[in-house]
């Protein structure tokens, strides 16, 4: 029987200037894929270059975490941007990060939308189409990372892009498989034991307990542990070790 495997990803490079968010270096010793901010919700050229270099040194796969142009809101506010403009802004972010990845001897391998854009393209067909068009035009070999059942993954698959199902060990789920919005209480799971339990169950059983107590199918190829939560590094280590102890190989999909 083939050994089960999963990618472990985290959002990195989310500082800006002298301000740092999370321990990028420590997390890069734990995860197999890094979703690197591209300057629109967080990140700046020096941060992008530093994180890409550190990821390349460790053999961690680099992904572009693209966002609305919303530094003030950390990309967590919906922006009703025209699809063509959104596509251009995604290409802009992709190209910027890919430049630093190539300087480091690597390259961008996948795209993951951030924050409000991630949530929007679950159901917003126009913005999902724009995201797909940007990826297809820039590099159709890039994978699309996102929520199962989203318009983003559906349209990406129709366009011939490789799609990768993602789940969140530290986020609460609704019964329909969508994420509980961050503005609602309990949207982020902060109990370490619960995060580890949920992550392990997602990968080994293909389900997660929703807020109403029902089990929702997820079956992730990539599992995310956010890098901006308190104790993120130790929590990511616990999730990785629990997966390995359960016989799951932690390996990048890219």
TrEMBL record:
Instruction: Tell me if Nucleotide-binding is a UniProt keyword of this record.
Output: yes
Pfam families xrefs: LamB_YcsF
Indicate the quaternary assembly.
Answer: Forms a complex composed of PxpA, PxpB and PxpC.
Q: Which top-level group of life is the source organism from?
A: Bacteria
- Protein name per its UniProtKB record: 5-oxoprolinase subunit A
Similarity comment: family membership: Belongs to the LamB/PxpA family.
Instruction: Record the organism.
Output: Actinoalloteichus caeruleus DSM 43889
EC number(s) on file: 3.5.2.9
Kindly state which reaction or reactions the protein catalyses: 5-oxo-L-proline + ATP + 2 H2O = L-glutamate + ADP + phosphate + H(+)
Query: Gene3D superfamilies recorded for this chain?
Result: Glycoside hydrolase/deacetylase
**InterPro entries in UniProt:** Glyco_hydro/deAcase_b/a-brl, LamB/YcsF/PxpA-like
Task of the protein: Catalyzes the cleavage of 5-oxoproline to form L-glutamate coupled to the hydrolysis of ATP to ADP and inorganic phosphate.
Q: Keyword annotations for this protein?
A: ATP-binding, Hydrolase, Nucleotide-binding
């Amino acid at each position: 029987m083939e050994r089960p495997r999963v990618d472990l990803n985290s959002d990195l490079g989310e500082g800006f200037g002298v301000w740092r968010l999370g321990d990028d270096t420590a997390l890069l010793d734990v995860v197999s894929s890094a979703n690197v901010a591209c300057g629109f919700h967080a990140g700046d050229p020096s941060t992008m270059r530093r994180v890409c270099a550190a990821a390349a040194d460790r053999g961690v796969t680099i992904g572009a975490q693209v966002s609305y142009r919303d530094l003030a809101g950390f990309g967590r506010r919906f922006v009703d941007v025209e699809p063509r403009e959104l596509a251009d802004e995604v290409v802009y972010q992709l190209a910027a990060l890919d430049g630093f990845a190539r300087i480091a001897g690597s390259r961008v391998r996948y795209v993951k939308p951030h924050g409000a854009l991630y949530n929007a393209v679950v159901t917003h067909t126009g913005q999902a189409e724009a995201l797909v068009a940007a990826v297809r035009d820039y590099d159709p070999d890039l994978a699309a990372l996102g929520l199962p059942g989203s318009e983003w993954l559906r349209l990406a698959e129709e366009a011939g892009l490789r799609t990768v199902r993602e789940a969140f060990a530290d986020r609460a789920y609704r019964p329909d498989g969508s994420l509980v919005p961050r503005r609602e209480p309990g949207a982020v799971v902060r109990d370490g034991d619960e995060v580890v339990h949920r992550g392990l169950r997602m990968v080994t059983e293909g389900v997660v307990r929703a807020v109403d107590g029902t089990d929702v199918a997820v079956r992730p190829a990539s599992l995310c542990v956010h890098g901006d939560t308190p104790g993120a590094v130790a929590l990511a280590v616990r999730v990785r070790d629990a997966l390995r102890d359960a016989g799951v190989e932690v390996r990048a999909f890219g």
